[in-house]
Design a protein that fits this description.
alpha+beta, eleven-stranded antiparallel β-sheet, about 20% helix, elongated
């Protein structure tokens, strides 16, 4: 599948140079804060779904903090005018006797595991239930807002609510459910033809209602696409179905954005197409309608009750790989020893390796924490080179994976460029020509953690190989700690000149050495 083919086209959390010191420097993870005429008798115009903004906020926190957060989507009440049906003469909703009750349908179990994995890979799954005045609601949510797919981050979400309607005086629960379904249908029809008042930077499209044949006792699907300024952009398919006294509401959302896009914007955002959204939502309606029918066949005429507990299940965390010391210094690193030792005289060297899925990593470091810096002063200088070689499951070189990794790193650095936070100051990104297929450079100053220093870094990609080169250092009074306020950063010119010298020397050697030597 080509990236983006199913989408509507648009009209390390921070990769911090200088982690070569002991202990490594870590930037703070501080997620940003976000800003936050119908004729009588006409159904209300569907507004922005209440679940969209929590989802967007969760996605942004994930992008900034690189953490997996499952946003739980919250629907409103029964669609239609919003006024509850009139109650019976006693003022109470009618329901079967207490003995005629059973634990309600397990919504999460109705979707086969393989189908859930296809729609929302590595999803966080949440279920909940609620016994209200007019309905007993059971719901399940599958979400993953940060799926790596080539040079894109994808977001996927499936949210399902099954409502069993209680009787209302002389009306049975089945009749109330039918009224609710018809109200939703009329509202969808109206939404497809209404002409909303939009701001100049807002755009919205709501598709015609599409009947879904052969599902329950009635089902339809509809597509919504919305763009609101430079931040919000979403699209989803919705399906509503009825089986007996139960209604089913399903929302399927999908989108993607380039990894190197500006954060907190809809730059390069692509949304699921109408065709795909309607297909998936309609298919899900059929799946859950069968599950509801099976539950009703097992418990005919029974009013469901919520289970005693609900749960949120996150995907199992992958063990974090740990680097191991290499028995010998890699030949490609050894070949530039003269260059490295001019930048870091009399260094202590270290070589480590690590396997992280398709990414085989090699790290070489030259470090001196006790360089003379003039009368009464000490200097730190360090060169760190990390090589990422990507291979597919068959062991063949995987250039697309290298491109995706490079794009992800570029996007993260772009999102912190020309900014400061918590003692960290990032310079702008500078594209570099003549170093592999792609390359860029950045200068960073840090007064965070146990070592204060400035660093210049270059990230380069050559085919299936990505190379990071960092040159870092500072000077300080010899009796001061490494994070003293009296630390003087290594000058930007020295740092940039040094890292470019090391990067050019290493790339010249890269193709001359056997991989992994």
């Amino acid at each position: 599948m080509n990236p983006g083919s199913e989408y509507e086209p648009p009209t390390n959390p921070y990769r911090v140079p200088g982690r070569q010191f002991e202990p490594p420097m870590k930037p703070p993870a501080q997620p940003p804060t976000l800003p936050s005429g119908l004729a009588p008798g006409m159904p209300p115009r569907p507004g922005r779904p209440a679940w969209v903004l929590p989802t967007l906020a969760a996605a942004l926190v994930v992008l900034v903090a690189a953490g997996g957060v499952g946003a739980y989507l919250v629907f409103g009440g029964v669609s239609g005018s919003g006024a509850p049906p009139a109650s019976g003469p006693s003022g109470e909703r009618s329901s079967p006797p207490a003995a005629a009750k059973a634990t309600g349908p397990d919504v999460c179990a109705m979707l086969p595991r393989e189908e859930a994995d296809r729609l929302v890979p590595d999803a966080t799954v949440s279920n909940s239930a609620r016994d209200g005045d007019y309905t007993v609601d059971f719901r399940c949510n599958w979400t993953n807002q940060r799926i790596s797919f080539g040079e894109f981050w994808r977001s996927r979400e499936v949210d399902v609510k099954i409502s069993q309607h209680k009787g209302d005086g002389p009306k049975t629960g089945r009749a109330v459910a039918q009224n609710s379904f018809e109200s939703d249908y009329r509202s969808g029809k109206y939404g497809a033809t209404a002409k909303p008042s939009l701001d100049p930077d807002e755009k919205e499209y709501i598709s015609p209602v599409k009947d879904v044949q052969g599902v329950g006792e009635g089902a339809f699907a509809q597509y919504t696409w919305r763009r609101d300024g430079k931040l919000l952009w979403y699209a989803f398919g919705k399906a509503v179905a009825r089986v007996g006294d139960m209604t089913i509401e399903i929302k399927y959302q999908a989108g993607q954005q380039r990894k190197d896009a500006q954060i907190l914007s809809n730059e390069s955002m692509q949304s699921v197409t109408e065709e795909n959204a309607l297909r998936e939502a309609g298919s899900l309606a059929g799946q859950f309608a069968k599950g509801v029918a099976a539950w009703q066949a097992r418990y005919p005429g029974v009013l469901a009750q919520p289970p005693s507990s609900t749960a949120t299940l996150s995907p199992s965390a992958r063990p974090t790989p740990s680097p191991t010391a290499l028995a010998a210094f890699p030949a490609e690193c050894g070949a530039i020893t003269d260059v490295a030792t001019r930048l870091v005289p009399e260094p202590t060297t270290r070589a480590r390796g690590m396997e992280d899925g398709p990414d085989s990593q090699t790290e070489c470091r030259w470090l001196n924490l006790e360089l003379p810096g003039g009368e009464g002063k000490k200097k730190i200088r360090s060169v760190l080179i990390t090589v990422h070689r990507f291979a597919n499951r068959a062991g063949a070189a995987d250039e697309p994976a290298a491109k995706a990794y490079y794009a992800s790193e570029y996007g993260r650095d772009k999102n912190t460029a020309d900014s400061s936070i918590g003692g960290m100051t990032w310079g702008g990104l500078v594209d570099v020509k003549g170093l592999g297929d792609q390359a860029y450079q950045q200068f960073v100053r840090s007064r965070h953690g146990e070592v204060s220093a400035s660093s210049a870094s270059v990230l380069m990609r050559e085919g299936p190989v990505v190379v990071s080169v960092d040159f870092s250092g500072h000077q300080r009074p010899e009796d001061e700690p490494t994070n003293s306020p009296k630390v003087e950063f290594m000058a930007e010119k020295e740092a940039v000149d040094g890292v470019m010298t090391a990067a050019k020397a290493f790339m010249a050697q890269l193709g001359k050495q056997p991989a992994g030597s």
